[in-house]
Automatic annotation (TrEMBL), chain A:
One Pfam family hit: Adaptin_N
Record localization: Endomembrane system
Biased composition (Gly residues): 711-720
Protein name as catalogued: AP complex subunit beta
Highest taxon listed in the record's lineage: Eukaryota
Membrane spanning stretches: none
GO annotation (BP), single: intracellular protein transport
Molecular functions per Gene Ontology: clathrin binding
GO cellular component: endomembrane system; membrane coat
Keywords, sorted A to Z: Membrane, Protein transport, Transport
Organism of provenance: Neohortaea acidophila
Annotated ranges, domain Clathrin/coatomer adaptor adaptin-like N-terminal: 15-534
Family indicated by similarity: Belongs to the adaptor complexes large subunit family.
From TrEMBL, chain B:
The name this protein goes by in its record: Mu homology domain-containing protein
Residue ranges of domain MHD in the record: 168-439
Similarity section: Belongs to the adaptor complexes medium subunit family.
Membrane topology designation: Peripheral membrane protein
InterPro entries assigned to the protein according to its UniProt record, in alphabetical order: Adaptor_comp_med_subunit, AP2_Mu_C_sf, AP2_Mu_N, Clathrin_mu, Clathrin_mu_CS, Longin-like_dom_sf, MHD, Mu2_C
Protein localization: Cell membrane; Membrane, Coated pit
Predominant subcellular localization, coarse grouping: membrane
Biological processes annotated in GO: endocytosis; intracellular protein transport
Keyword annotations from UniProtKB, A to Z: Cell membrane, Coated pit, Endocytosis, Membrane, Protein transport, Transport
Gene Ontology CC terms, in alphabetical order: clathrin adaptor complex; clathrin-coated pit; plasma membrane
Signal peptide coordinates: none
Gene3D superfamilies for this protein: 3.30.450.60, Mu homology domain, subdomain B (2.60.40.1170)
Amino acid sequence: MAVNRLRTALGTPRKGETHELRAGLVSQYAYERKDSIQKTIMAMTLGKDVSVLFPDVLKNIATPDLDQKKLVYLYLMNYAKSHPDLCILAVNTFVQDSEDPNPLIRALAIRTMGCIRVEKMIDYMEEPLRKTLKDESPYVRKTAALCVAKLFDLNPALCIENGFLETLQEMVGDSNPMVAANSVTALAEIHEVAPETRALVVTSQMLKKMLLAMNECTEWGRITVLKTLADYRALDTKEAENICERVSPQFQHVNPAVVLAAVKTVFLHMQHIESQQLRATYLKKMAPPLVTLVSSQPEVQYVALRNIDLLLQKEPGILEKEMRVFFCKYNDPPYLKLTKLEIMVRIANSNNVDQLLAELKEYAMEVDMDFVRKAVRAIGQVAIKIEECAERAVNVLLELINTKVGYVVQEVIVVIKDIFRKYPGYEGIIPTLCSCIDDLDEPNARGSLIWIVGEYAEKISNANEILTGFVEGFNEEFTQTQLQILTAVVKLFLKKPDESQSLVQRVLQAATAENDNPDIRDRAYVYWRLLSSDPQIAKNIVLSARPQITSTIPVLPAPLLNTLLPNLSTLASVYHKPPQTFLGDGRSSALQAEALEEARENARENPIAAAAVTAAIAGGSAPQQAQSNAENLLDIDFDGSAPASMQKAPGPGASGLEGLAGTPQRVASPQVGSGGGMDDLAGMFGDAGGSGVNGGGSADDMINGFAGLGVNGGQQGSATGGEKKTNEDLLGLF
Amino acid sequence: MLSGVLLFNQKGELLIMRAFRQDMRPRLADVFRIQVISNAQIRSPILTLGSTTFSHIKNENLYIVGVSKGNVNAALVFEFLYKLAGLGKAYFGRFDEEAVKTNFVMVYELLDEILDFGYPQGTDAETLKMYITTEGVKSERALEDSSKITMQATGALSWRRDGIKYRKNEAFVDVIEDVNLLVSASGTVLRADVNGTIDMRAYLSGTPECKFGLNDKLTLGENGAGTDLSMQTSTKGGKKASKAAAGSVTLEDVSLHQCVKLSSFTNDRTISFIPPDGSFQLMTYRATENVNLPFKVHAIVNEVGKTKVEYSIGIRANYGNKLYATNVVVKIPTPLNTASTTHRASQGKAKYEPSENAIVWKIARFTGQSEYVLTAEAALSAMTTHKAWSRPPLSMQFSLLMFTSSGLLVRYLKVFEKGNYSSVKWVRYMTRAGSYEIRF
């Protein structure tokens, strides 16, 4: 014995171990066998391949010990695929077990059978499944109901032939609420996979049954039923009212997921209620439970907050009085803090804005850089949203400049630029801004300051001096900053022609002769021509009155919002993206279609901003796509860990800076991104051998780069869409 | 729905992997380990890679991960993961790496029972304990029980089994409130609210029906929810006390245990239920109006030059002098470059904890209406770059018996059951600190 143990210890461990396990599995003592099965499962968990033991484990299947049976079943489920032939040996036991007097064993047998995905097993499943669906024990019935969904996944035809779907539909009216709920679950799953089966078509009869079952089944069952109810379109107002009335008590459920599901159901059906008053009542009823969700576990809270964000975009008024609940706690995880900030800005109004500003100032002094930046940005968003508080907000921002913390100051400058774009009369603070010129190192902040200097050149006595400083280092600047310098100097020249004649010449010289960025060169040439032909026309164009901005709070476009609302509490609502864009096939084309739609809509309303948006979308999506395609080769495709809001390119407000010069033009920074993405794609394309399309794609990009109007933005969108599609197909060949 | 569940330890070693669907492949565990556990930059609990989504929570020293495909219900997944953690705790005392390793067979069994094809099934610990036990259930012996068990696991009363008998019928009600407070540096209360829970331990025979009454104002959210809908229905409900008497409490929102009949609560605000056996959480509520703060904190913090910070913290107890709070802990943050501290407390003990960057002041017993003061000084070591101190808020912990911040009281608890049935009821109140923070 001792020698034996020694040998196991010294010898090759894996082989010895398997051997020992095998010996244990066929031991004459029951406890040794059970012990060995446990060890086998343990090895399986650790990722060791113990499939060679399959026949030995199988010998233990017929046992009165329920625990042991479960373990053997677990093993079977894992390795059935690798030993399909041997599985047949287990069939007999399964069929026997499914007729066992003990309901627990009957349920176990039918549950496990569904999980053994072996072709031969399916033929034997039919009979036991039919029996268990009609079992006297509800526990067995509810297990069998789900088993139909499993079988459908394996062999839809067999499932339909045997009429299992009809049986399930009948079972929705089962006297036991859990059986009813599981039947709904199974039907919903089948319906989703194969809509042509029309497995789950809610009739008014079924509706009644579901409403009944909902009140009595488990929390998880309620969620399924609520989801089905939410997807159902009420026939008339009366039915919608009825659903709302029956569902709204679920707001008081302790499980946040049930509450969210109930909120979704009521919110969707509410839209069909005619009585304004009744709708208002439901909206009010919804508010307290939503607030309660904010005190749940952080991860659940995160989902809830992202959903609240969506609801607020549709119904801005629901949480007006609840500002304080969204104040960040010091030890909230960062993802919560950022989401809470967004919500606070949305519910800000003239009554609570004082409180909010004080709170935001507090946040702006914390240490987490992302959070601080976002807090500063929020101050600007609130100032632009609510006119009364603009002055106080500006004062807060000035105080923040005095902290001299680099990233705070930079963000403040960007924010103040936006405030200038909305409200006149704050020119008095410009000297303070100019004093921190040396601390700025980010292109966006530098660009903002330069824009301010150019815009108010007539009021800044040393504007010439400041801009001279920038012109000297012109070639070292980022593209975005260079464009701003160019425009600012031209503005300065038009306002004070006497002082800055030489400066404007120098900058135009630098931009045309020493620079190879076509955007900058083009713009410089345009200005040069303008100035040399007729200064008055130049004035009219460059110094034309700019449109006032209305809001810098990012808002989802209405069509997107409407597709997201039916998806409340799902992943789509967390990412704020339609499901098809971040899941599975066809996402690239769907994303592009969405972007295209959005761009067209914008183009109708506001041609200048549209260009910016298109570029931003293209810039944001192209590199991402490229990346995800590359990852596709590795079978797991990356689409972004952060929710949409965090990775989305700056919205019209933030990136709109570039559209300020008075002439419609291409956006600088996002375009760089887009170009990069195109390059990537083109590169990958070359590898794949699709040279023809490649040429088309980049040519289009070139055209776009030069012309850059809203309409062309659309063109680019469609072209890249097509290109990517092929790209993906090609990759699929690998 | 869920394709699988993974459990990892802190180091990223896989402890449990249970696949529920075909699309759950073993290598996904490696993907999660690489993308989340060994990636310090991860900031979100949800990660979608391609069509696979990993949702994770952390519990003790475990990562509990739900793997799913498609556009799943994110709230449900997280709630389920927390439920799993809770079940683990109910079964093994605590749900950590050691517990999982020693009970891994049980964990598999539990997972097998509470998830089927990735859909959560019954997750009630009391019910599960009847048929998933550490001793194992022998099928012959359990035959007659099994039918009962399965009836209960699926029945409308899944939380209570039949034929419970006690010699003495007792019910204990614990009202526990967590006060959340946020006071700004200038002393204004930015946020004060109460998250309350009412826990019950019921040792009652048979299937009694309980009715529970609080001194809450009957209209939930006052002008809000009540008006239109409940006006129609309250006439049916016999017009219970139209407006509550003085000394009543406004509850912002309540969530009730699944045993409470939600429809009757919506109609006439009665909380009636058939309780599970043993302890359970009957309801949780939120109150924001008229919150009595048990402690008033007065903090003066001065940064003297770059080398020293002076503290003077005064804490006054605002409750009656017959009550006393226990385990009062005040955490006073110090700058990161604190070298040493000196402190003097009029009561309790103060100690500098370098690992927490705080002076921790503990007072074992804090009598009502008294006031204690701590004066302290932190000496700072010189730093090459001077970075402003972010001044995290001062925080407090305490527990205070027989006091509710919201003023909530249990008015009655009635137990109805056939036959002569007498029951004894006990009520206990406690107020604790939730996040009790004072900025300075």
